[in-house]
Structures are given as structure tokens and as C-alpha cells.
Amino acid sequence: MENLLTDFIYFLSVEKGLSKNTLESYQRDIRSFLNYIKQKNVKKPGQVKRELIVSYLGDLREKGQANASISRSLASLRSFFNFLLQEGVVNDNPAQQVDPPRIDKKLPQVLSFEEVENLLKQPSEVDPIGLRDKAMLEVLYASGIRVSELVLLNLPDFDPEVGFLRCRGKGMKERIVPIGSMAVRNVQEYIARCRSNLVKDDEEIALFVNHHGRRLTRQGFWKILKKYAQKANLNGAITPHTLRHSFATHLLENGADLRSVQEMLGHTDISTTQIYTQITRRKIREMYDKTHPRA
């Protein structure tokens, strides 16, 4: 069974081009299931039936896992058994017969325009690190790209003439996203005034680098954002995705159409983007209740 898991992860990596984090998630989910069925003395994938998977998911629930995590585990098992079906190892997919638990979608945390403005004011514009941080924050809010896409940006991916970025999303799929004039100006200033002071190797092509002159990591950016969020006295756990959520919500509030926002975010399914319309409807209702004399 362990060899089949290794083959599956290799398939996802080579054929599907999934990211390292996604591969690790699949591996973790499926290995947990394999450990469970080992305790049940199940040694072959063909012995796995629907009832066993239902029992496993119930065990996860008893251990306190949230419905979202249980649903993800089921999705991993479905993919795994689909692979085994294609390889002729099993005759059917028992996970396909199991209904996922209902997930109540939580509305994402969104900053107000004033809060975003306050956050963007925090980096110092007189030192190289501050200029870099200002440029990164401006790019995230101006484009809505993911933090993983931000740190993968290279110098040639930035086109100041037309105001576009070329970024690589999930599965390394490329897309072109527009950025506003303020973000363009801040990136140009960072490149002109301080990037060369940070970079130690002339062959380094990363757009945003750390104080060692190498490509900035996701973890590095998280620490940077946390520092400025605290300085701005923002409540709650602010993450890079908070700026992505704020970008999408503010666009829709100001009249952008859903399809355009979907394209810019790189969502393959428009239903993923539609959650932001719920936020805008909620804000409209709150404003109505506050301001209408007969609300």
C-alpha cells in the first residue's frame, strides 16, 4: 500500500504539476487512512469498502477534526482510489460512494479601505527594507495575487509600461494581472533605489529579495506582514490572504463584474469567487439597517 501511495504522489507531481504543499497534504491524508486500515487488518486496496471509509471519517470527527478537514481527507481518498482504478489495482472507487460532510462556508476576513490605507502607510520609505516592504504590500493589494505568487515573481515578470504582472499560480499556471499606478511606482522605486543594494549575486532574478539578497520566502513575508499589522493596530489575525480578500471585495463594491475578478484571482470555478458577493451584500444590509429611518 505504501508503494501505491508513492506512485500516486509521483503521478500528481509529474502529471498534474501540483505544488509541494498540495502534495504533502495528499500524502498526509492518505497515510493517515492507511495507518487506520492497517489497524483493521486491511492489507489490500481491493478490501476497502464504503463502510470502512465512513468509519474512518467518523473516527476523524471523534478526534475533533473540523468538517472542512474531513471533507479534504475524503477528496484525497477519492483521488487516490481514482488513480488505483485507472491503474487497474481496484475495480471501483469506494470513496466516490461516500457523501462529504456539510461545510458552512465562513466569510473571509476583509479589511476596510481605511484599514488598508493605514497598513500601507506603515513601512518606512527612507530605507531599502522599508521600500521593499511598501512595494510588496502595494502589489498584493493592487493585484490580489497569492503570497506564493508574490515571492515567485521575477524581474522580467514586472512590466511597468503597461502596468501588468505575469504570475505563476497553482500548478505553476501563468496568468497576467493588472496593477495600478501606485503599485507600479512603488515597485519601480524599490528596483531603482534599493534592490541592487540588497542583491549579492548579479544572476539573482527574483523581484523581491531578503536582506541576504536571495529570494524572499512565504514565511519571510508572513513575518513582515505581521509586523506592519501590529504597527497599524489591526485587530484579528491578518494574513496575506486578507489582502487578497480585501482586493476582491473592494473591486466588487466599486462595480467590478464577477468574471473579471475571477480572472484576476485565478479562480477556475466562479463559485469560489461568488463568496465575495456575500460580503458586499452583508455590508449593504448593515449600511441599510444603520441609516434607513424605518429599517
What does this structure look like?
This protein is mainly alpha-helical and 295 residues long. The protein has two domains: 2-97, Tyrosine recombinase, N-terminal domain (DNA polymerase, domain 1, Orthogonal Bundle), CATH 1.10.150; 113-289, hpI Integrase, Chain A. The chain has 13 helices and three strands; from the N terminus they run H-H-H-H-H-H-H-E-E-E-H-H-H-H-H-H. The protein has helices spanning 2-14, 20-39, 50-62, 67-86, 113-120, 128-143, 147-151, 181-198, 218-231, 240-253, 258-265, 270-273, 275-291, and strands at residues 158-159, 164-168, 174-178. It has a three-stranded antiparallel β-sheet. Helix 6 (128-143) packs across helix 10. The model has no long low-confidence stretch (mean pLDDT 88).
Name the descriptors:
hpI Integrase, Chain A, 3 strands, 295 residues, mainly alpha, globular
Gross CATH architecture of the largest domain: Orthogonal Bundle
Number of helices: 13
The average pLDDT score comes to 88
Strand order of the largest sheet: 1-2-3
Enumerate the spans where pLDDT stays under 50 for 5 or more consecutive residues. none
Q: Estimate the strand proportion.
A: under 5%
The residue fraction in helices comes out at: 55-70%
Q: For this structure, what is the CATH class of the largest domain?
A: Mainly Alpha
CATH superfamily of the largest domain: Intergrase catalytic core
